[in-house]
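Form 12-C: Joint structure prediction
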Amino acid sequence: MTSEEHFLSKPYGPKPDSGVLAYQAPSNIALVKYWGKYGDQLPKNASISFTLDHCVTQTHLHFKKKETSGFSIAVLFDGQPQPSFVPKIQQFFDRIVKYMPLLEAFHFDIKTTNTFPHSSGIASSASGMAALTGALLALENSCLKVPLAPSDFEQKASFLARLGSGSAARSIQGPMVVWGKHPHIPESDNLFGTLYQAPIDPVFRSFQDTILLVDEGEKVVSSTVGHALMHDHPYAQSRFDQAQKHLADLMPILASGDLLAFSDLVEREALALHAMMLTSDPSFILMKPNTLSIIEAIRRYRAETGHPVCFTLDAGANVHVLYPEQCKSAVLQFIEQELKGFCSGGRYITDRVGHGLKKL
Ligand code: DP6
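Section 2 - Result
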């Protein structure tokens, strides 16, 4: 098992005076969910996700050497100053500075934009933290006497991104990433995400995810509050055990491409996540009536047509519709005709499995 010390920074050479680095990172959608953490952003169970392709954050990191101590950060979101983003980034810097001491040596202007609507309920913390981490680590790498090899870069990027937002650990690589130790996946680790390397049927390499925007409002429960609800939750341990079992059960399904078994497991997992919120104290009902209508329509469609379409949910009301590329035109027609009406403003986002962090 890799230890945290492994990620401490190595000796720096000369630092540039100023410059800009740009990275993009995608959102990801978990099939087995991370819900409950301990210590320094460590997961109570292993999770696995599809890395997405179109839903990305693009971040330009402008840096300029400074003499003062402490952090100096300004954020522009979609070209507008966004001081409300600074505390979260400051907290992120506090957590990672011991692994990246150069954070105190520069003033940073972070210019960031999402290809998906900010308030859409899509996990922008995953893509945002992963993209920012990519740019920061590229800066550090350019200062190291001996730069990191690409695989070490990815591992450290995931390790650092995790400290910004747990799910961001899964946005560095693709198509599928595991984060959290699992006995059947030797390379898995609580400290960072790893590319899922066990056999995957080719169908999963081009899987589609259409995100139905049921509720575009602000999140009802922040992730921080949500994860904390698991601390005294009466079903917490059963849930963590269930997630570990779900991942074990998913492995032969991923290998065989048994899409009906996949649908069954992925849906039960999404409902288990919501069951935790329904039964926490205080309790939260994050689905909306339209979420349930969509779920029912998807199950009916699958039963009637045999098309292996299924849903998953994040901690909100939106529905991710997952299906193989071969069914794309039929499923998009179904979405247009039967599901679009349940979406806020008729809006949905069509995405697919992708590859993770990218230098721009
Ligand atoms: C429901 O990664 O947003 O999307 O670590 O507090 O930033 P923090 O939490 P976050 O939690 C995501 C929870 C989830 C499930 C998942 O993506 O695995």
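Section 3 - Comments
The longest helix spans residues 236-256. The chain is about 35% helix and 25% strand.
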